[in-house]
From TrEMBL, chain A:
Organism: Xanthobacter agilis
Annotated GO MF terms: ATP binding
Keywords, comma-separated and alphabetical: ATP-binding, Cell membrane, Membrane, Nucleotide-binding, Sulfate transport, Translocase, Transport
Domain ABC transporter: 3-237
Stated name of the protein: Sulfate transport system ATP-binding protein
Family as reported in the entry's similarity comment: Belongs to the ABC transporter superfamily.
Keyword Cell membrane belongs to the record: yes
Annotated Pfam families: ABC_tran (PF00005), TOBE_3 (PF12857)
Keyword ATP-binding: yes
From TrEMBL, chain B:
Quaternary context: The complex is composed of two ATP-binding proteins (CysA), two transmembrane proteins (CysT and CysW) and a solute-binding protein (CysP).
Lineage: Bacteria, Pseudomonadati, Pseudomonadota, Alphaproteobacteria, Hyphomicrobiales
Transport in keyword set: yes
Residue ranges of domain ABC transmembrane type-1 in the record: 67-270
InterPro entries: CysT_permease, MetI-like, MetI-like_sf, Sulph_transpt2
Name recorded for this polypeptide: Sulfate transport system permease protein CysT
Pfam family, one: BPD_transp_1
Length: 349, 284
């Protein structure tokens, strides 16, 4: 089922959670809403589910208005960050809940309910836990139960609100691989809310980056990472080195000196040059656009990081650069920085 | 050094929470003085009676009836409080309305009011010429000076026990549970019945037990409204007082022993019920 979100605005007292947001989600797609906390991603998810209503705008499922339907009529599976399992029911009964509350012609006979629940429990690989209570399960197992419970009602849309946020890193990694696999087996239109960029990049077909109630960029994971549309996206996804500069006539300058870098179409005025740490090379100070003193050195996994102090129009600023392990530099040395791949944006504020 | 330290460590296992011996000692001493000693006295006094005399006292028609009135009406009043108290809790926890804090404070009045004052006030209201009593009289319903009056008094004094026990539990109940239930297609009623009630069930049982225990022992508010007709509206605590005033101390303690044992048995059942329902929710 496709989902259309048109001009949705939501205000909580004086705080604007969503500001005229429009988004199209295709049938069978797994979309990640990625953003820092307070960006409105969870609010958008809850509006799609019918747990919140927008002040303005429309939500359509397959072209039909969804806002006139309550959450129980929308047939959406919702997975909560903290599982929200019914602790007085066994794993089996938790999964069966959505089938047992059906009334009228939709009601299933007991045998069908049992068959369906067992099928789901083996799908999420916890059939051996069916008689346990939620309190006896680990976090990862609980989230599998929550997912099976949401899938039991054969939802047209699966909504996941930071589903792996409460799990430790190893389980999280394992579960998101498994979720991706599950989605390929059972392509239900899914929306995943997360603040974890790695999770979004790994799991989703498309990423929607949100910031301060607005959509900053929509695109495939590779696109969003390699061609960020705004400085916000560049900064939020992946690590960012921020270098100062000023655009003038299609070139970049620093303190009146030309940097020899392309302004990439940014209009005249203060600019920011953003690059990934591994795309900024150390160079002899006289041949590099930027030069400064090394303030500190840190070993950081396979490579080292250097804090380099650079003079800019706004005073001194510290830039973190990546240094190969075999490169011999020391604190206090003067080094040059050469970004060989970078993006230029107009400086805000 | 290490030779010395070893036996010491063995003698006193280390604990994060020191003071176990001291606090347990204080607890036991205090409980003995306050609770156990009077109970021993109770049984000692009763043992002055021969067993046949004891049986005769506790199976006398007046005693049996008084016990029936006390336990029956206490259970009934606790049940009424469980239902109506739950509604009060629901309203206080789930809705925002003006003067909510005032309403919340009103719930505590039965705790604070001297029971005799409550009894007199209730009698005045429910007597045939009272505010409520005069409305009920034409319908042929008499509250004051009947078992119904006792029940009204017991409902009054038991209400805060249910409300104050269930309130924090409902307030802590994760709203997401109800959202999950609704997203799975449950109606509001199904959510209430299948999710909310089972979650607050154990606390409701506790509230019921407290209200019941309070009702069985209640004296002050009941005697004013009951009419105290032997065999009709006489409660067991009153009968005990009557026996004391007749200087038949052993008779009084005999009834008290039966009340104590019956209350103990009932509370044990309720506790068992509660533990069973809690175990279903936690570990098993």
């Amino acid at each position: 089922m496709s989902i259309d979100i048109v001009g949705v605005t939501k205000q909580f007292k004086t705080f604007t959670a969503l500001d005229n947001v429009s988004l199209q989600i295709n049938s069978g797609e797994l979309v990640a809403l990625l953003g820092p906390s307070g960006s409105g991603k969870t609010t958008l998810l809850r509006i799609i589910a019918g747990l919140d209503w927008p002040d303005q705008g429309e939500v359509r499922f397959d072209g039909e208005d969804a806002l006139s339907r309550s959450v129980r009529e929308r047939n959406v599976g919702f997975v909560f960050q903290h599982y929200a399992l019914f602790r007085h029911l066994t794993v089996f009964e938790n999964v069966a809940f959505g089938l047992r509350v059906r009334r009228g012609p939709a009601k299933l006979p007991e045998a069908s309910i049992r068959a369906r629940v067992n099928e789901l429990l083996s799908l999420v690989q916890i059939d051996w836990l069916s008689d346990r209570y939620p309190a006896q399960l680990s976090g990862g197992q609980r989230q599998r139960v929550a997912l099976a419970r949401a899938l039991a009602i054969s939802p047209k849309v699966l909504l996941l609100d930071e589903p792996f946020g409460a799990l430790d890193a190893k389980v999280r990694k394992e579960l998101r691989r498994w979720l991706r696999h599950l989605h390929e087996e059972m392509p239900v239109t899914s929306v995943l809310v997360t603040h974890d960029q790695e999770e979004a990049l790994e799991v989703s077909d498309r990423i929607v980056v949100m910031g301060r109630g607005k959509i900053e960029q929509v695109g495939a994971p590779v696109d969003v990472y390699q061609n960020p549309a705004t400085a916000f996206v560049h900064d939020f996804i992946g690590e960012t080195v921020r270098l100062p500069g000023e655009a003038r006539g299609g070139s970049l300058f620093l303190k009146g000196q030309p940097l020899g870098l392309d302004a990439q179409g940014v209009g005249d005025g203060p600019a920011q040059i953003l690059a990934r740490p591994h795309e900024v090379e150390l160079a002899p100070p006289e041949n590099a656009p930027f030069a400064g003193k090394v303030l500190a050195l840190r070993v950081f996994g396979p490579n080292r990081r250097a804090d380099v102090e650079i003079a800019s129009d706004q005073g001194m600023m510290v830039v973190e650069a990546s240094v190969p392990l075999d490169r011999d530099i020391s604190v206090g040395a003067r080094v040059g920085l050469l970004p060989h791949r970078y993006r230029v944006f107009a400086a805000t504020a | 050094m290490s030779n010395l330290a070893l036996p010491l460590a063995r003698r006193r296992p280390k604990s994060v929470l020191p003071g176990f011996g001291l606090t347990l000692g204080l607890t036991l001493t205090w409980l003995s003085l306050i609770v156990l000693l009077p109970m021993v006295g109770l049984f000692a006094k009763t043992s002055e009676l021969t067993f046949s005399r004891f049986l005769a006292i506790v199976t006398a028609e007046r005693t049996v009836h008084a016990l029936q009135v006390s336990f029956g009406l206490s259970l009934a009043a606790a049940a009424v409080n469980a239902v109506l108290g739950l509604i009060v809790v629901w309203v206080l926890v789930r809705y925002e309305f003006p003067f909510r804090r005032v309403v919340d404070a009103i719930v505590d009045i039965p705790f604070a009011l001297p029971t005799a004052v409550a009894g007199i006030a209730l009698t005045a209201i429910y007597a045939e010429n009272g505010w409520v009593g005069s409305l009920l009289a034409p319908l042929g319903i008499q509250v004051a000076f009947t078992p119904l009056g006792i029940m009204v008094a017991l409902v009054f004094i038991g209400l805060p026990f249910v409300v104050r026990t269930v309130q924090p539990v409902l307030a802590d109940l994760n709203q997401e549970l109800e959202e999950a239930s609704a997203s799975l297609g449950a109606s509001r009623w199904q959510t209430l019945w299948r999710v909310v009630l089972p979650s607050i069930g154990p606390s409701l049982v506790t509230g019921f037990a407290l209200a019941f225990a309070r009702g069985v022992g209640e004296y002050g508010s009941v005697i004013f409204i009951a009419g105290n007709l032997p065999g009709v509206s006489e409660i067991a605590p009153l009968l005990i007082v009557i026996r004391l005033e007749e200087f038949r101390y052993a008779d009084a303690t005999a009834i008290a022993v039966v009340m104590l044992l019956a209350s103990f048995a009932l509370l044990a059942i309720i506790n068992g019920l509660q533990r069973w329902s809690e175990r279903r929710g936690r570990a098993g």
